[in-house]
Amino acid sequence: AVVHIELVPGDHVEITVAAKGGGSENKSKFAMLNPSDSIRDWVVNTVPLMGAGWCPPGMLGIGIGGTAEKAMILAKEALMEPIDMAELKARGPKSPIEEMRIELFDAVNDLGIGAQGLGGLSTILDVKILDTPTHAASKPVAMIPNCAATRHAHFTLTGNGPAYLEPPRLEDWPQVNWTPDKASIPVNLDTLTPADVASWKPGDRLLLNGKMLTGRDAAHKRMTEMLARGETLPVDFTNRVIYYVGPVDPVRDEVVGPAGPTTATRMDKFTEVMLAQTGLIAMIGKAERGPMGIEAIKRHKAAYLMAVGGAAYLVAKAIKAARVVAFEDLGMEAIYEFDVKDMPVTVAVDSEGTSVHQTGPADWKARIAAARTQQPA
């Protein structure tokens, strides 16, 4: 754990615990602006650089002032605040910080990045800002996103025994009975061919059935090193699909624990080797692919499929069997073989190299701008 302690007057202890995923934490940004620079401009120009690996829609925590490390801590602390943007807009701002929150909220959503980075009206649900005095020559600004899966707990210890957190009442949530969309395309992974992959179009929704392999950073690093030495891989990837995931250990009667996709851009540097030398024809992850990954996908007529980030438990419901097939010593980073049924994914990069993470937000940004110009003054 990373622990921050603040000593204050009183006779009790307030504790906040945050379990933060790498997809959002890795998108943290910091800048030492000049005192005259615009924080708004920096935020609006920086958010698109974060891609979609932080699983929007989420929150932005912004820390202003202090020193470099103080600004980062403020940004992280800001993320622990409750979402109240609707209430703030309804009553109106009462301070310059609240004015900035509203301004940034509207400006970021006007970017059209949308849920999972596929384009839309809701990129962020709230902006939280904490500030503190700083040197007159400096303006440290930090920005940290929180993904759609906001995992934090708050409790107080008074010395009168343990604190008990009341579990959420499931009946407070709407009943959701997911069934595959009729427009979805069923895919048999066990008979998949390069011709099948070439037929997929950007934005197609697929339902995957059959056996897939898994692997992420450590497995890819080991495989590319083996291939460089001329060694044979322990798994045959010919006409197979790989899922970028490190599954959590199962408990009780689970086949596998939460098994959500990891950020695909981290595998971009391995993509050319994997597609060129293993027979792999498709990959599954979350968020966008970078230029290097897209170029490799286009060159080898492969495809990249996007699973929903921030929903690891729900994704795991599609996994009906799981077994380790290679690199068992890597633990959760080992190569598994999953047997899946109706696992929903979206074609995010097709065999021609078209990325919906580029076309979707660009389309929505233009539509939002057009709608803004048509509004009466």
Structure explained in plain terms:
Helix 6 links the parallel strand 7 and strand 8. By secondary structure, this protein is an alpha/beta fold. The protein has helices spanning 22-25, 39-46, 68-78, 85-91, 96-109, 194-199, 217-228, 268-277, 291-299, 312-316, 356-374, and strands at residues 13-18, 29-33, 58-66, 124-134, 139-146, 152-157, 185-188, 205-214, 241-243, 282-285, 303-306, 319-326, 335-349. It contains 11 helices and 13 strands. Helix 7 (217-228) crosses helix 8 (268-277) and helix 8 (268-277) runs parallel beside helix 9 (291-299). The chain folds into 2 domains: 13-171, no CATH class; 185-361, Alpha-Beta Barrel (fumarase). The protein has a 5-stranded mixed beta barrel.
% residues in beta strands: 15-25%
CATH architecture of the largest domain: Alpha-Beta Barrel
> Looking across the biggest beta sheet, what order are the strands in?
8-9-10-11-13
Helical stretch tally: 11
Q: N- to C-terminal separation?
A: 51 Å
**What is the CATH homologous superfamily assignment of the largest domain?**
Fe-S hydro-lyase, tartrate dehydratase beta-type, catalytic domain
SSE string: EHEHEHHHEEEEHEHEHEHEHEEH
> What would CATH call the class of the largest domain?
Alpha Beta
Kindly summarize this structure in a few lines.
The protein has 377 residues and is of the alpha/beta class.
Characteristics:
fumarase, 2 domains, 4-stranded mixed β-sheet, 11 helices, 13 strands
Task: Detail the topology: elements first, then pairings.
Layout lengths: L12 E6 L3 H4 L3 E5 L5 H8 L11 E9 L1 H11 L6 H7 L4 H14 L14 E11 L4 E8 L5 E6 L27 E4 L5 H6 L5 E10 L2 H12 L12 E3 L24 H10 L4 E4 L5 H9 L3 E4 L5 H5 L2 E8 L8 E15 L6 H19 L3
Helix pairs in contact: 7-8, 8-9
